[in-house]
Amino acid sequence: MTLFARGRRMFTSACMATLVVAALHTIGNTISGPPDPGYASVEAAMRAYSIPLGIGMSPSMWDIFRGLVFTMSICLVAMGVLGLVVAASREATPRLLSRMAVVLALASAALTAVYWVYRVPPPLITMAIVTLLFVVSVATTSKSADARVSI
User: What's the whole-model pTM score?
Assistant: First the structure.
């Protein structure tokens, strides 16, 4: 199978890990935990505070927060699926995979930095793992590209 061919395994693994993080992110933000009066108070305040943003829309802070939650999930799924589509393509060269790995490593590192700055451990840890997987895949796809060029 092309996805797990030599030089693509780590890249494929990193893409799959990105999909797992997307699922965990969505589950973690949509399944309610045990009742917490402090959280219930914050959520109620967010639901009560609306912001007029034009074109007849006044979303609550809760609506905006939920929109951002699902934006993150969708973007992570897009990153993972795009990588898998390219990795599955026989036409994708090792150089292309290496370049994609660099871009996805940088994107993952940027997200890791955001969660470091805002001190949110679950996405900080999961995105740090994904970043490391993409960094390693840069090396493995590059080695595959070097081997291909020398043949």
Answer: 0.89
Q: Are 91 and 66 in contact (CB under 8 A)?
A: no
* Residue 57 dihedral angles phi and psi, to the nearest 5°: -110, 135
The kind and range of the H/E element at 27 are helix 9-30
Residue type, 48: A
d(CA 63, CA 147): 51
Each residue of 84-103: pLDDT tens digit? 999 999 999 999 999 999 99
Both tokens assigned to 133: 């997987």
Task: Report whether 18 contacts 76 (CB < 8 A).
Answer: yes
Give the HSE-up count for residue 2: Cα atoms under 13 Å, Cβ half-sphere: 13
Closest CA to 12 of 86, 64, 74, 120: 86
Residue 81 main-chain phi, psi, to 5 deg: -70, -40
